[in-house]
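Inverse folding, one chain.
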């Protein structure tokens, strides 16, 4: 895993593509995707143990909405909320969306991002550790979340991961960006 950058955010033009209401259709789609993943890979969710019913608030700091996730296997649910409308959560994970996606797909090291203060985590530590371990052990690819296999899965993974890499590169080299560049 790469240790990543110190907080690459979506470029401003991309942030404007996501008005607050843009996240609303994502809730049912992500819920269906998570439940499908639970049917195909139940061990991933079993690894969460008693924390499968915990509520995780995933708050992309560069988007106008957040995700409330309960990864409870076949009963998993994802709700998209406004920043102020989020239900109380057991765990809150905040950071730029590109960094959060990098943790999910394994291209970035969540521990390094946490210690560099690129992401912040609060709440029940044991639930965070269980989620981190489950995600890391799962070695998830975009095709896993989409339920794809074979050639279509390889194309989806290459396209999505390549696209995310390109956006991270654009964001890192944006004019006025301080930090990583030497």
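Residues assigned per position:
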């Amino acid at each position: 895993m790469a240790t990543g950058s110190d907080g690459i955010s979506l470029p401003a033009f991309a942030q404007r593509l996501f008005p607050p209401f843009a996240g609303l259709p994502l809730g049912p789609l992500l819920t269906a995707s998570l439940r499908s993943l639970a049917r195909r890979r139940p061990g991933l969710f079993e690894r969460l143990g008693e924390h499968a019913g915990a509520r995780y608030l995933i708050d992309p700091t560069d988007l106008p909405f957040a995700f409330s996730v309960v990864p409870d296997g076949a009963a998993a649910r994802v709700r998209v909320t406004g920043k102020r409308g989020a239900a109380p959560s057991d765990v809150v994970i905040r950071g730029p969306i590109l960094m959060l996606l990098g943790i999910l797909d394994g291209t970035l090291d969540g521990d390094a991002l946490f210690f560099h203060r690129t992401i912040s985590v609060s709440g029940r530590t044991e639930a965070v550790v269980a989620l981190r371990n489950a995600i890391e052990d799962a070695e998830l690819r975009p095709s896993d979340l989409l339920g794809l296999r074979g050639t279509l899965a390889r194309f989806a993974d290459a396209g999505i991961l390549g696209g995310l890499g390109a956006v991270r590169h654009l964001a890192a080299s944006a004019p006025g960006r301080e930090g990583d560049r030497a």
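The mean pLDDT is 83. The chain is about 45% helix and 15% strand.
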